[in-house]
Write a structure and sequence with these properties.
This protein is an alpha/beta fold and 236 residues long. The model has no long low-confidence stretch (mean pLDDT 96). Bound molecules: S-adenosylmethionine.
């Protein structure tokens, strides 16, 4: 945890104090081994960054005075469309994607996505929030991403994607793509990443009809959990 995130409702009415009695309290005591008077990096969820000066620590809770005075890091101007991977992979990826600063995530159905994956409890709002907070705490960011589940490939690609792509560079990560994935893109991008078995040719054709360019990361076929951070890192 490189940043202690607080929700606005956890602050006192004067907005400059907080009392925490949960895993953040344990982290401050057991991992940071902080003491009264120490300052730690804090952030307001969807708000500013700042410092918290510890005023009390005991077995139950920690109390701190707060000062918020700095903006969170800029977002990555990329929208990610990710064919839904298995829950174990999704859990880690949601944290990683959030840490990279992606603010718009679409989880998409595809021919090679197991239908049962859509039933995972991980997709419940509370579980998603937990993964997002872990990703933000890791990266020192405060702004939660928005996540949309698209369980129907064709209607999404035909009816919604054209609007979503407006003003962005659409790229589909595809090991058989003819061009290498461009690096250090400063412009808004929409990146599509396939399922563990890859997109089927029909899906690649539909994405290309929409304007997507297939790009590769070299001749090695990577697992989704390796391909996504490699692609986002390259585009950052
Ligand atoms: N046999 C599948 C194929 O050839 O598409 C492999 C799929 S790979 C495990 C899962 C996804 O990760 C791919 O659909 C693609 O989006 C991305 N990926 C993996 N390796 C890649 C590479 N070398 N270049 C571009 N994308 C890659």
């Amino acid at each position: 945890m490189n940043l202690l995130l607080l929700f606005p409702e956890e602050l006192t009415s004067t907005q400059n104090q907080a009392r925490l009695c949960d895993r953040r309290h344990r982290h401050i005591r057991q991992v940071l081994r902080a003491e009264v008077g120490d300052e730690i990096k804090v952030g307001l969820v969807n708000g500013a960054l700042g410092k918290g000066r510890l005023t009390k620590i005991d077995d139950q809770c920690v109390e701190m005075d707060l000062r918020f005075d700095c903006d969170p890091p800029p977002p990555l101007p990329s929208t990610l469309i990710l064919a839904l991977p298995r829950p174990k992979v999704l859990k880690r990826l949601l944290q990683t994607i959030t840490s990279f600063g992606v603010k718009k995530i679409y989880l998409l159905n595809a021919a090679r996505v197991e239908k049962s994956y859509w039933q995972t409890p991980l997709l419940r709002p509370g579980s998603l929030l937990e993964q997002f907070l872990l990703g933000l705490e890791q990266a020192g960011d405060t702004v939660l991403p928005e996540l949309h589940c698209q369980k129907l490939f064709k209607p999404f690609v035909e009816d919604e994607l054209p609007t979503l792509l407006a003003g962005t560079l659409p790229l589909v990560a595809h090991p058989a793509g003819s061009d290498p994935c461009p690096a250090s893109l400063k412009r808004p991008t929409t990146l599509a990443v396939g399922p563990e078995g890859g997109f089927v040719p029909y899906e690649i054709d539909k994405l290309m009809e929409c304007g997507f360019r297939p790009v590769h990361l070299g001749e090695r076929v990577l697992r989704v959990e390796a391909a996504v951070p490699a692609l986002l890192g390259r585009m950052s």
